[in-house]
Amino acid sequence: MPSDMPQPTFVLVRPQMGENIGAAARAMWNFGLDRMRLVAPRDGWPNPKSVAMASGAGRLLDEAVLVERTVDAVADCSFVFATTARQRGMTKPVVTPERAMEMAREKIARGEKVAVLFGPERAGLENDDIALANAIISVPVNPEFPSLNLGQCVLLTGYEWRRQTVEIAAEVTEMAGTDWASAIEMDKLALHYEERLDEAGFFFPDTKAQGMKRNLRNMWSRMPMTRADVQMMHGILRQIVRWKDRAE
To answer: Are residues 28 and 129 in the same domain?
Structure first.
């Protein structure tokens, strides 16, 4: 059975190749979507080639709803999006995938049922299919090469749905078993280097020494260092001093 998670239904209209149906299922499941409807697949249904391509998302194929007409696939939906890259001469809102899935989230939260139509690989949705839609999803692709594979289009739309429903950090840092260095640890590192560099005569002439030390500390403060980094920098300096002492 499909999950209870509120979500839009993805409708593949007259898909041609079983492999592309499988790729669409895999893309849907990547982003937690599991409500697929198929309108008159060209090569019949079920299709063993779709199972091989689904790669672990076969449950979606087993539970896919098969219908003969597009209107039957969206009969229980109150809002329908149609994906197309071509101008169709129809007066409809045209939205990006991001905006479409934002709208879908708002409508589904109010208890509405939402569907997204994806057309066959060769020519996309027909005008009669698009006439059933309330809005058009248009991907801002290269106008000289606007064609998207069925699986790609499903993947892109599924990704935008996921962004609307899951809190996703734009950037994270994997700490690999360590923590960020504290201010006192950075201060001790700076002092260690200042002492050794002072012994080596680096801070010359005396009139510039204070400014050079300040610049060095400023450099350390700009570096987002972990405790492991600080320990390594201490170790490097200690080893350099030991090597120098042995050489003498």
So the answer is: yes
- Residue pair 110/169 in contact (Cβ under 8 Å)? The answer is no
Parent domain of 45: 9-165
Residue 2 lies in a domain: no
Q: How many helices (H) and strands (E) does the chain have?
A: 10, 7
Beta carbons of 119 and 13 less than 8 angstroms apart: yes
User: What is d(CA 69, CA 14) in angstroms, rounded to the nearest whole number?
Assistant: 9
Exposure of 218 by Cβ count < 10 A (0-12 exposed, 13-18 middle, 19+ buried)? Answer: exposed
Secondary structure of residue 110 in the 3-state scheme: coil
| Region for 15 from its dihedrals, namely left if φ exceeds 0, alpha if ψ lies in -120 to 50, beta otherwise | beta
The model carries a pTM of 0.77
138 and 219 both lie in a single domain? no
Q: Which pLDDT tens digit goes with each residue over 155-194?
A: 999 999 999 988 877 888 888 888 999 999 999 999 999 9
- The answer to whether 29 and 56 have CB atoms below 8 angstroms apart is yes
- 123 and 27 in a common domain: yes
